[in-house]
Amino acid sequence: MLLKHDIEFTLNGVTKRLTVDVTMNALDLLRDVVGLTGTKYGCGEGECGACTIRVDGETRNSCLMFAVDFDGRDIVTIEGLAADPKADALRESFVEHGAVQCGFCTPGMVMQASHILDAHPDADAETIKRGLEGNLCRCTGYKKIVDAVESACCGGR
Amino acid sequence: MNVAEKPVITADSLIGQRIQKKDAPEKAAGKTRYIQDMIVPGMLHAKILRSSRVHARIRSIDTSAAKALPGVHVVLTAADVPDQQPIGVARDHLPLKGERVRSLRDEIAAVAADSEEIAEAALKLIRVEYEDLPVIATPEDAVKADAPLIHPAPLDADGKPKTVPPKTPIAFAGKADNIAMRFDYTHGDVAAAEAESDVVVEDTFQLHYVTHCCMGVSGVIAEFDASGNLLMYSNTQVPFLHKREFAEYLNIDPSRVRIIQPPIGGGFGSKLDIYPFEVICIFLARAAKRPVKMVFTRKEEFLASPTRQPVLLTLRSGCRKDGTLTFRQVHTLHDNGAYTSWGATTPFVMMQTFSSLYRVPACDYHTTVAYTNNPYAGSFRGYGNLQATFAIEQHMDMLAERIGMDPLDFRLKNAQEAGEVTGQGMTFKSCGFRECLTTAAERSDYRKKHADNLAHRDAPGPVKRGIGIASMLHVGGGAKIYPSDGCGTILKLDDFANVTLITGASEIGQGSETVLSQLVCEELGLPISAVTVVNNDTAITPWDVGVHASRTTFIAGNSAIGAARKAKAKILAAAAKKHGCDEATLDLRGGFVVVAETGEPVVELARLMRNLHFSDKAELVMTTFYYEPPSVHQDKAFKGDVSAAYAWAAQVVEVEVDTDTGIVKMTKVTGTHDVGRVLNRLGLEGQIEGGVVMGQGYALTENLIVENGVTRNPNFRDYKLVTAPEIPEMDITFVESMDGEGPQGAKGVGEAPAICIAAAAANAIYNATGVRIFALPFTPEAVYRALRGKAEKPHWEAWQPE
C-alpha cells in the first residue's frame, strides 16, 4: 500500500492543503494534481531545467523534488510570476528580444532568469550565462535569451 | 500646414524590421499547451514495451499477467493486429514486432491503462523469450558477402524462402542483402579530369551519431469518433502527408483522418516520418474505444527517436596549379540502422553539395546505405549536408595548401555565380556566394588571423588559436520531391478589417506564423496584430507538403502573398467603384484605402468591409491561393533544378585549442548568409544563432554513443548539448541577393546555419595546430589523441556492388 502524507504549502500566493503519495514527485504534483502545466517535463533528472520553479525564493528543478518536500514551503511557478511587475518586464524582454522559439524551455528559462534578476540586479552577460547554465535550449543558441535577461537587468537599474 | 485636416498615410514597410514572434507572449507566460499538457476527457495513457535484445528471434510473448492488472484496458502485440501494414519509405518496418527484433528500440507490446504508472507496471509483467541472433554493429560488416541478413525472407513450413507476389513490401518479403538503398550520380569525365589535375588528395571522413534533442519529447493522442473517424493530436511536421499515410495503414478513406497539431516543442526534421509509436497509439485507441495518449520519457526519446545518419565518406578531389578545381569522386557508406526512414535519402542533398557548391567539371558520387542493428536514421536539419560539407570544405583547404594558394582565394576562384547552370542541372538565378565569402572573411579579419595563427603555431604555451572558413549551398526555394511542392492559403477579412490567415504551413517554433503575417500585412497595409493565424488542423487548413527543406518562408510566403494580393485587388476594386475613382490609383496603408500617390485616405478599410458585407450585393472578402514553385523533379540520373532558389553562406569559426587537454573552445563565429532578402530580422537572427550553436554541438560535444547496437548515453548528462556559457561570440550578417521568385525577394534559411560549423572548426583546429582530424566530434579525448599522433585515421575499402 502506498504511504500518503498531508502537506501544506503556499503555491503562487495561495495556501494549498493536499494529501499526496510519498513517492510522487513535485513536477507531477504541479502538472497532474494541481493542473498547472507551465512547468515542463524535459528530462526528469535535473539536467535540462525545463521544470524550474522557485522554492522559498531559490530556483529548483521540480522533477528532483518529492511532492512532500513542498510542505511548509513557498512555491512559485511560471503561472505565479504573473503577479510580479519585475517578472512582467522580464517576460516582455523575452518577447522583444526574440528569446522564444519553440518555447518549451521558456518557462524554465524565465523562472531561472527571475532568480538571476533578484540575486544579481546588475548581472553582466557572463554572470547571466553562468546563471542559465542548467537550462537547455535547442532552438535559440541562447544568445537572445542572454540578451533578454541582460536588458531586463539594465532596465531595472 | 494643417495636418489634421488632410492626414497623409505613408507607406511604412514591415520588411526587414524586427518583428516580435506572435506566439511568444503565451510561451513566455507558460500558457501554451503542448501535446504533453493536453487532456482529452476519458483518455487512457499508453506505454510501449521495447526489445531488451539488439537482434533476436522472438520465441514467445506472454501478456496474461499484464492484462490481469487492475486499470489495464488493452495490451497489444503483433498477434493482436494481424492487419498492420509496414511503415517508412522502404516499407520495411512493422510497428509491432512479432517474430524478430532488429534493434534495441523495437516495439514488442503496448499497454493502454488508466494511468501512466499502471501502464508502466503492466509492461513489467510482460514476459518475452528471445533467441539471440548475431549483431551487425557496423555498415562495413553489413555489406560483407557472408553477413547475416537483417531482413531475411520469411520461410515456409519446409524452411525454404516463401514465394511472395511481386511488389510485396520488404517487411513481408524480406531482402536478399543488407543494402537499403544505392545512389549513383555522375557528371563530366572524372578519369580525364583527374589526368589533367596537378594535385589530387584523397581522404576518408567519419561522421557520428547525433540526435535532435527536441526539448518537448515525442507525443500523440489518438481517438476515434462513433463513426470510426480518426482524430490525432500530433507533433508532425507533415500533417497532410501523414493524413494520407495513416489512412493507408488503417485501410480507411483519408477523409476520415483529421490531424490537429498542438504547438510543437521543437522539430528540426525529427517529425517528418511516421513512427511506430504513432501507429501503435492508434491501434490502442481503436481497441480501447477511448482516446489514448502516449508521451515519451527523455530516455525513450534518446533511444527511439531518429538520429542524424552516421557516414563513412571517402573523397578524392583534384585541382590545377592555378587553383581551378578539376573533379570530385565520392564513395559513402551510410549506417541506415535496422529500418529505413528519411536518413537513407540524404544522398539527394549530399550529391548536390559535391556537384554544385563550387564549379567542378566532373563529379562522381556513390552511396551505399546499409542495414545494421543500430538505431535508424531520420531527417535532421541540413539533411546530409553537414556530412558532405565536412569533407568538401576540409579538402578545399588541403588542396589550397598543396598549391600554395590562400584558402579564401581558392574558394573565390571556384565559387558559383548567378546565372550558372551546374553539372547537376541546378540553376543559380540569385547567388550571393562570393559576397558571403568576402564579407565573412573581412568581418572576421580571416586572412590576417589565418597567417598570424600559422606563424604562432610553435610559440610557447599550450593554447593555440585557429581560424577556419567553410561555405555551404542548400535548397532555399523548396525541394520538389513529392508530386507537389506547394502550399495553399485561405485569407479572410472580417468587418473590423482583421485578417484570418489560414495556411497549410506548420509552426514548429521557427516563426512561420509571424513571417507569413508580416508578408500579408505588407500587402494589405495592416499591423501584424490584425492577423490571426490558423495553421494546425487538416480539417480547416489547405494542403501543404510540410515543414522541411527550409521551404516555409519561400513556399508558404509566396502562397500568402498570392492570397493577399487577390484580396487587395478585390478591396481596391470595391473602393474604386464606391468612391468613383480608378482602382489603379489606390493603395492600402495603415488600415485605410488611400490615394497611392498622395497617401490621402479615401475610406477606412473596416468601414469599407462592413459596407461590402451589408450592401444589397453582399460580398465577403475571402480569397484562396495555391503556390507551386517553378522547380522540377530530378530525372533518374538525379539531374534537374530541384529548388526554385538556392541559399548560400560562408561561416568563419575561431577556436582556442588547449594542446595539454585537447579542449577546443569555439570563441567566435562570423557568418554571412545569402537569404535573398531579410524579412523578419529578429526571427532570422534567432534561426541563424540557433543553427550555429546546433552546429557547434555537432562539431564539439554531441555524440550518441552506440556500441554493438546499444545506446550508451540516453540522457542529457552523458549526451552533451552546448550550454549558455559555451556559446561563441556571433557576428551574423546578411547578403540580400533579391531572388526574383522569392517572397519579397527572400529565400529559405532554416537549415543553412548548422551546415558549415563542423567543417570550419576542423579547418580552424588545423590552422591552430597543424593537425587535421577526419572524424567527428572533436571531443577533448579525440583532439588530445590526434595532437599526439594517436588518432586512428578513418579507413574503409570503398564498397562496390558486384
Automatic annotation (TrEMBL), chain A:
<dbReference type="InterPro" id="IPR002888">
    <property type="entry name" value="2Fe-2S-bd"/>
</dbReference>
<dbReference type="InterPro" id="IPR006058">
    <property type="entry name" value="2Fe2S_fd_BS"/>
</dbReference>
<dbReference type="Pfam" id="PF01799">
    <property type="entry name" value="Fer2_2"/>
</dbReference>
<keyword id="KW-0001">2Fe-2S</keyword>
<keyword id="KW-0411">Iron-sulfur</keyword>
<keyword id="KW-0408">Iron</keyword>
<dbReference type="Pfam" id="PF00111">
    <property type="entry name" value="Fer2"/>
</dbReference>
<protein>
    <submittedName>
        <fullName>2Fe-2S iron-sulfur cluster binding domain-containing protein</fullName>
    </submittedName>
</protein>
<dbReference type="InterPro" id="IPR001041">
    <property type="entry name" value="2Fe-2S_ferredoxin-type"/>
</dbReference>
<dbReference type="InterPro" id="IPR012675">
    <property type="entry name" value="Beta-grasp_dom_sf"/>
</dbReference>
<dbReference type="InterPro" id="IPR051452">
    <property type="entry name" value="Diverse_Oxidoreductases"/>
</dbReference>
<feature type="domain" description="2Fe-2S ferredoxin-type">
    <location>
        <begin position="5"/>
        <end position="81"/>
    </location>
</feature>
<dbReference type="InterPro" id="IPR036010">
    <property type="entry name" value="2Fe-2S_ferredoxin-like_sf"/>
</dbReference>
<dbReference type="InterPro" id="IPR036884">
    <property type="entry name" value="2Fe-2S-bd_dom_sf"/>
</dbReference>
<keyword id="KW-0479">Metal-binding</keyword>
<keyword id="KW-0560">Oxidoreductase</keyword>
UniProtKB/TrEMBL annotation, chain B:
<dbReference type="InterPro" id="IPR037165">
    <property type="entry name" value="AldOxase/xan_DH_Mopterin-bd_sf"/>
</dbReference>
<protein>
    <submittedName>
        <fullName>Molybdopterin-dependent oxidoreductase</fullName>
    </submittedName>
</protein>
<dbReference type="InterPro" id="IPR046867">
    <property type="entry name" value="AldOxase/xan_DH_MoCoBD2"/>
</dbReference>
<dbReference type="InterPro" id="IPR008274">
    <property type="entry name" value="AldOxase/xan_DH_MoCoBD1"/>
</dbReference>
<dbReference type="InterPro" id="IPR016208">
    <property type="entry name" value="Ald_Oxase/xanthine_DH-like"/>
</dbReference>
<dbReference type="Pfam" id="PF20256">
    <property type="entry name" value="MoCoBD_2"/>
</dbReference>
<dbReference type="Pfam" id="PF02738">
    <property type="entry name" value="MoCoBD_1"/>
</dbReference>
<feature type="domain" description="Aldehyde oxidase/xanthine dehydrogenase a/b hammerhead">
    <location>
        <begin position="29"/>
        <end position="134"/>
    </location>
</feature>
<dbReference type="Pfam" id="PF01315">
    <property type="entry name" value="Ald_Xan_dh_C"/>
</dbReference>
<dbReference type="InterPro" id="IPR036856">
    <property type="entry name" value="Ald_Oxase/Xan_DH_a/b_sf"/>
</dbReference>
<dbReference type="InterPro" id="IPR000674">
    <property type="entry name" value="Ald_Oxase/Xan_DH_a/b"/>
</dbReference>
